[in-house]
Amino acid sequence: MEKKENEKREITEVMIDKYCQWLRGNEKSESTIKKYRRDLILLMQYLNGKGVEKNDIINWKGFLRERLAPVTVNSVLAAANGFFSYYGWDDCRIKFLKISRNVFYPERREIGREEYKRLVKTAYAKGDEKTAVILQTICATGIRISETVYVTVEAVKKGKAEVECKGKIRTVFFTGELSQLLMNYARRHGITQGMIFITRNGKPMDRSNVWRNMKRLCEEAKVTWEKVFPHNFRHLFARLYYEQDRNLVKLADILGHSNINTTRIYTMESSKNYLKQLEKLNVLFENYNKIPLLL
Predict the structure, then answer these.
(1) pTM, whole model, 2 decimals?
(2) pLDDT per residue over 69-106, tens digit each?
(3) CATH pick for 13-92 out of 3.40.50.300, 3.30.750.80, 1.10.150.130, 3.40.190.10
(4) Distances in whole angstroms, Cα of residue 87 to Cα of each of 33, 45, 59, 61, 153
(5) How far apart are the first and last CA of the chain?
(6) If we measure between CA atoms, which residue out of 24, 17, 14, 19 comes closest to residue 2?
């Protein structure tokens, strides 16, 4: 931690880069570092050269609340608080929003098995084989889009990949059917070694490109636009797996979660599905001899 005294506390890009370098030295994942840097750049732009004061940070928090979901606001505040602690500006640290635990997954964002199938079929029909195979790989393994760099020819031949993310290493298994799908795709595209999902230049797939390619399928597949983003198919995998196994601890290990409460979020269903389950209880009856059995 560094502390600067008797100086105007102004956030600069050099300071942000130095903090990000410190995060890298503490083995934070590159995706986390990139997100923190992006959030801090936005804070720097918001302050626009002003010195950092607690009231300004409180106003910034209000600014975020008007534009972002509460969970996203807290993730941005986490980046700022870490930065403030690193530079010894503890008086600028700010409280997170208090969020009540949501029991149900928003119905407008819950993607179902049939919608997923339509998206895959649409991708194939449009000649976008890469997106079709990526969708199936996520739904068959629960892998993050950033972890597809570990889906290599060598790993598929072994039937498993050792995936490192957020300082943890876990084993992701490929079923025989998925392995065959991936190897056929690799052969058709002349990929004999290394990463299977690559750009035309042989580089790892860019998350934003995958996101855009998935969005292009929505209209033809008749799937709501806001349901279609890479991470939502990881959620779909979690729900489908949990329906079969009902072992939350095992699922947490499969997904690479260190906190089981995160896994609970992944297995949440919409209130519509919950109502269907209530109806299956079959505990209500019509009148018997005109006398209500249940009042």
Answers:
(1) 0.66
(2) 888 899 999 999 999 999 999 999 999 998 766 656 67
(3) 1.10.150.130
(4) 17, 19, 21, 20, 45
(5) 66
(6) 19
